[in-house]
Amino acid sequence: MLKDSNIIAVLPAKDINRAKEFYRDKLGIEPSDSMEEGSVMYRCGQGTGFLIYQTENAGTAKNTQMGWETDNLEREMEELRGRGVVFEEYDFPGLKTENGVATADWGKAAWFLDSEGNIINISQRA
Asked: Which of 44, 59, 96, 100 has its CA 20 to 30 A from that of 86?
């Protein structure tokens, strides 16, 4: 059943137009369609996607809400930094970043905030 179905992330946005500009201008992703007033759908690789919907609850989660897997983390970070994306620095038990990158046995990862305060991740498996 569900194990064979495509999965999508759902992200909140206080300002849907500001979020659309961020994903277009900073990440280079265009919406694929609108679900209804105040929401927009994005499609990514291999049937994956994410929905952004307008709500006052945006930016309140303190955890990673969505992430992309890449085969070249440094290249992706360089391109995103060139578009103005700022990567987070963390230093707490189990997670320490250097120049925005955390390294572990499984691979490496980096995090940034979108325009709505959602924590987004990019990772590369070892």
From this structure: 44
Contact call for residues 8 and 23 (beta carbons, < 8 A) = no
- The confidence score (pLDDT) of residue 76 equals 97
Residue 104: which domain range? 2-125
| Cα 120-32-63 angle, rounded to 5 deg | 15
Q: 124, exposed or middle or buried, with CB in 10 Å at 0-12, 13-18, 19+? A: buried
Mean pLDDT, 10 residues at a time, over the chain (126 residues)? 88 96 96 83 92 93 95 97 98 94 96 97 97
pTM for the whole structure: 0.92
The Cα–Cα gap between 90 and 113 comes to 13
Strands 49-54 and 8-13: parallel
